[in-house]
TrEMBL record:
Gene Ontology MF: a single term: CoA-ligase activity
Homology family: Belongs to the ATP-dependent AMP-binding enzyme family.
Record-annotated AMP-binding enzyme C-terminal domain positions: 413-488
Positions of the AMP-dependent synthetase/ligase domain: 12-362
Keyword ATP-binding included in the entry's annotation: no
Phylogenetic lineage: unclassified sequences, metagenomes, ecological metagenomes
UniProt keywords, alphabetically: Ligase
Gene3D superfamilies in UniProt: 3.30.300.30, N-terminal domain of ligase-like (3.40.50.12780)
Coiled-coil stretches noted in the UniProt entry, renumbered to this chain: none
Protein name: Unannotated protein
Entries under InterPro entries matching the protein: AMP-bd_C (IPR025110), AMP-bd_C_sf (IPR045851), AMP-dep_synth/lig_dom (IPR000873), ANL_N_sf (IPR042099)
Length: 495
């Protein structure tokens, strides 16, 4: 088996990618991937070697990714806009043999100490020899092909760094079988077909972009429109121009599109599938899209360690706020602090098991043991409740739980109340140490259009809707919230 074979068998004349206005057919993609496999093999890259990708959403990312895993190498996708120290730390973890670098990462790469990059035998620049000693990728996209290497199901395909919303990121080991299994699981619900046009703005170095956007699109023989940077206005233009049918995005995308002054209620008429993931989608956004455009945003749930899709609401009764039910092949439990199943309606931690669950964290047996039980259950650290119909509702991250005088406070509940305030556009809630109650609730608020709000008035507003111990004792007004590339608020940065 080999994950890279997802591009095989599709009509060669069908468009696989549109990147920077340039179309690439499936036949051209297969030829380019084959040529790059050959070039890597001729330069001595072997099964098990690590290839770092410091690329944005481009054709180069996809060709390099498929070629590397096609010869049994292991891909480590990194954020090309990260500062040099962060990239340096990640390089120490994965120890690559090859680095493929796009222009936005050139300066960061040059500022990484040579002692760190010395093990990298091959440096490939995507646009010219801007980096000293680098080869240009165009030399890799022509020439003799090399055969796809058959690998074991358990062979690592990627080292995927977790999003780091709760601290320092770790490299999750995802195998060929993990990723292929989850592509099939997701496609049971999504039914991606050759007639689909998928909008690809989610970062490809994030697991949502890598296996949901790339994986399910190319496995289904559909067309992927790659977008380097998100802009609400140009997004709407692209949807209309390309006839986009599948629009995956983080909540921040949906919030931005919902704030546009759309002239027609039919602006999303080509969209057959609107997907939200990577973070909890505020219910008011979901309800607004349904009321204004008749577009039902399907929310799901996943995490890097699950490759990533765990639940979906596609094909079910549409319930704003629900993350649906598990996709086929996943066992899911909601458990209490003792590992026992909770009663319907009670909150508990999500545990999951299935072939899509990762093999562990690279060189970190202790962290792996904390999340994987001996019988294969992944402790997700996410808190949810399940209703009588089996629909799941996300509550919060277990590690984000705030305990005030012995009472549990879930930040998402407080954030939901504050988000409903007409003059608040964004909010994040964290716990802070308190000498009498153990912890106290602190809210960081972004107002709409710079409106001035009174802190005491906001606290009083919360007291009309929440128990007193759940209400913020402090409200700080900020211009923006710290987020990672997938749109998740980084609460640890606020703490």
């Amino acid at each position: 088996m080999n994950l890279s074979q997802i591009i095989e068998g599709h009509d060669g004349n069908s468009t696989a990618l549109i990147s920077r206005g340039r179309s690439t057919t499936y036949q051209q993609l297969r030829e380019q991937v084959g040529s790059m496999r050959g070039a890597l093999v001729r330069r001595g890259v072997q099964k098990g070697d690590v290839v770092v990708l410091l690329c944005g959403n481009s054709r180069y990312f996809i060709v390099s990714y498929l070629a590397a895993i096609g010869i049994g190498a292991i891909v480590a996708p990194l954020n090309p806009t990260s500062p040099a120290p962060e990239i340096e730390n990640e390089l120490h973890v994965v120890t690559p043999t090859v680095a493929i670098i796009e222009p936005s990462a050139y300066e960061a790469w040059k500022n990484i100490p040579s002692v760190t990059t010395s093990a990298v035998r091959i440096v490939i620049a995507t646009e010219g020899h801007v980096i000293e000693g680098a080869e240009t990728i165009d030399e890799f996209l022509t020439g003799d092909s090399a055969a796809v290497v058959d690998v074991e199901a358990s062979h690592p395909a990627v080292y995927m760094f977790t999003s780091g919303t709760a601290g320092s990121p770790k490299a999750a080991i995802l195998t060929h079988n993990n990723l292929l299994t989850n592509i099939r699981q997701a496609n049971v619900a999504e039914h991606i077909a050759p007639t689909d046009v998928v909008f690809g703005v989610l970062p490809l170095f994030h697991i949502f972009g890598l296996n949901v956007v790339i994986g399910t699109t190319l496995a289904g023989g559909a067309c992927l429109v790659l977008v380097q940077r998100f802009d609400p206005v140009s997004t709407m233009e692209t949807i209309a121009e390309r006839g986009v049918t599948v629009l995956p995005g983080a909540p921040s995308l949906w919030a931005a599109l919902g704030q546009l002054d759309h002239e027609s209620p039919h602006v999303f008429s080509s969209i057959r599938l609107a997907l939200s993931g990577a973070a909890k989608l505020p219910e008011q956004i979901s309800q607004s899209f349904s009321a204004r455009f008749g577009l039902q945003i399907q929310e799901g749930y996943g995490l890097t360690e699950a490759a990533p899709v765990v639940t979906t609401s596609i094909g079910m009764e549409w319930i704003p706020g629900s993350i649906g039910r598990p996709v086929p092949g996943i066992e899911l439990r909601v458990v209490d602090e003792n590992g026992g199943d909770v009663l319907v309606g009670d909150s508990g931690e999500i545990w999951i098991r299935g072939e899509n669950i990762f093999a562990g964290y690279l060189n970190d047996a202790e962290a792996t043991a904390r999340v994987l039980t001996r019988d294969g259950w992944l402790r997700t650290g996410d808190i949810a409740v399940v209703d009588d119909s089996g629909h799941l509702y996300m509550v919060d991250r277990a590690k984000d739980l705030i305990i005030v005088s012995g009472f549990n406070v879930f930040p998402a509940e407080v954030e939901g109340v504050l988000s409903a305030h007409p003059d608040i556009s964004e909010v994040a809630v964290v716990g802070t140490p308190h000498p009498h109650t153990g912890e106290a609730v602190r809210a960081y608020v972004v107002t709409r259009n710079g409106i001035h709000l009174d802190e005491d008035a906001i606290i009083d507003y919360c007291r009309t809707k929440l128990a007193r111990y759940k209400c913020p004792s402090k409200v700080l007004f900020v211009d923006s919230l710290p987020r990672n590339v997938s749109g998740k608020v980084q609460r640890y940065a606020l703490r």
